[in-house]
Specification:
The protein is mostly helical. The protein is built from 20 helices and two strands. The model is unreliable at about 1-15 and about 135-155 (pLDDT under 50).
Length: about 375
């Protein structure tokens, strides 16, 4: 009798792949990715012939930043196990884009569109192809990355020296312009300030070109407009906004920064408070969510949102940052967290997305974010697949 009981215990202890997937997905939703990885590997041990198990593992490895390893699995799935899992082409393309192999990324996106022209990710594939082509064009017209980083690291001479020698020294003039398009925001802000101090409004034309540039981050563009306004620039200024160039009258164009409203700060504070209670975010996310909120208000001004229930806007703003960083947080979960309805979050998020095109712009952010994660994390243990 005891032996039979022992056998029953052994049988009952055996778990299905579905069980391990559910456990892994639970930890994935909690952003406990190392634990999720253990359970996703178990699904393969239990069902080594099931291609979906490998697909799920590769998706997780992509999220963790192990892009080469994930692509090896995606490739094995679609070429050797299950050609119907065409999403592998799309996800491999994203990963190749993240590691800088743009030609391979474009090739795989085209493969996905060929095999799944009406697939769930077809629109995303077309958007990414558009973004990747722009990326390739940008490389042709911009400085080499290493050269740019070197220029960013150089310290600007004292402001007085630049102002005094600006017109007489082509080297100083050229260095200041390079610094304006650098990667370090603090140095860029300093360059803007110097342009604003140049005599005879000599800095006006470089700043006008700066705000026209579609590659400039919106918060820096706003900062440049403020500098121009402080210089006394009036009349028409051509600015890149959203999807194209737009003429604004700087004399009357209201900029958000000097006239920030308490209700806007309350929305931002509500989002930041919620994010700080979670273990899913770090300081970079806090900076990004503030930038998204400021960009949104600037893009829709003067048609600013009517904020009746601030918690809804706070929840929508947090959802925007999760979409921007491809985090797996649902509107339902945020609705419970903020004590609002999922539909209300969806409505406000659509307003933010319409103004900023969050999901399209997220591609560039994803390159930075996942590459950083890849650099920060040690390689995983060998996978059995």
């Amino acid at each position: 009798m005891r032996i039979m009981l022992s056998k029953k215990k052994v049988v009952s202890f055996l778990k299905s792949a579905s069980y391990y997937y559910q456990k892994g997905n639970f930890y994935f939703q909690q952003n406990k990715l190392d634990k999720a990885l253990l359970f996703f590997k178990k699904t393969i041990e239990v069902e080594p012939e099931n291609s979906v198990n490998y697909y799920n593992l590769a998706c997780l490895l992509s999220r963790m930043g192990y892009l080469d390893k994930a692509n090896d699995i995606f490739s094995s799935v679609v070429y050797q196990m299950d050609p119907s899992l065409t999403e592998c082409y799309f996800l491999m393309a994203v990963n190749y884009g993240l590691i800088g192999n743009l030609d391979k990324a474009c090739h795989l996106l085209n493969l996905y569109l060929r095999y799944a022209p009406d697939g769930e990710m077809a629109q995303d594939a077309e958007d990414l192809l558009f973004a990747l082509r722009e990326e390739v064009e940008e490389v042709d017209f911009k400085e080499d990355d290493e050269e740019k980083e070197s220029a960013d690291r150089k310290k600007l001479p004292e402001e007085e020296e630049i102002i005094r020698s600006y017109h007489e020294s082509p080297e100083i003039k050229n260095n200041l312009l390079k610094t304006l398009y650098g990667k370090n925001d603090q140095v860029v802000n300093k360059a803007m300030h110097i342009y604003g101090l140049l005599p005879g409004k000599s800095g006006e034309e470089p700043l006008r070109e700066f705000v026209r540039n579609p590659w400039v981050r919106q918060r820096l563009r706003v900062r440049a407009l403020l500098e121009m306004k402080n210089m006394g620039v009036k009349g028409q200024v051509t600015v890149f906004m959203g999807e194209g160039l737009r003429d604004i009258d700087l004399s009357y164009y209201p900029l958000i920064a000097p006239m920030w409203l308490d209700e806007w700060q309350d929305v931002l504070d509500g989002t930041l408070h919620s994010m700080q209670q979670s273990n899913m975010y770090n300081e970079k996310f806090y900076e990004d969510v503030q930038a998204i909120w400021i960009d949104f208000l600037n893009n829709i001004y003067p048609r600013v949102p009517r904020i009746n229930k601030r918690a809804i806007w706070s929840a929508a703003l947090e959802y925007a940052i999760t979409k921007f960083h491809f985090l797996s947080i649902t509107q339902k979960r945020l609705a419970q967290q903020y004590n609002v309805s999922p539909s209300s979050i969806s409505a406000k998020y659509q307003e933010i997305n319409k103004a900023l095109n969050i999901e399209h712009r997220a591609y560039q952010n994803m390159i930075r974010y996942l590459t950083q994660r890849k650099d920060e994390q040690p390689p995983p243990e060998d996978d059995k697949h």
